[in-house]
Amino acid sequence: MEIQMKLKVSAHDFYHVLLQSLINDIQNVTHQTMTEADLSCGYRYKKKSTQRQGSMIKVHVKKLVSDQEYLVHFTTSLDTSVLHYRLEPIDENHCLVTYTEKYDRFDKQELSSSALRAQKKRAKKMIKAIEHSIIKNSRSKQ
What we know:
The chain is built from two helices and six strands, in the order E-H-E-E-E-E-E-H. The chain is an alpha+beta fold. It has a six-stranded antiparallel β-sheet, covered by helices on one side.
């Protein structure tokens, strides 16, 4: 699944939110202080699934390019998901986000068309929520 959206925020601000979310997740799991410099491509950690009781998720940071690209793999005993954001600045306050999500089940079952539509709707909603959060935070700082 791929989505492209023009947003009313900078690529820098959008990337920073993605990165901060990843850093917060790692800190919650490892209880170690992290910075962007600590995150290298290839960084891995494990966390408990909040949706599947007793299940573990392996997280693998595949690629981080500041203000441009974010690529992370999530693997469980049942499936793997790849989340990829590509950010292109349009101008100082706008960017084009290309979001790609690839989901594979190890039993090779395909997602239904309704599940794919729901996945796409959820992804658009999440991207818009990030945009609104950035705009709201920038207004509160003024």
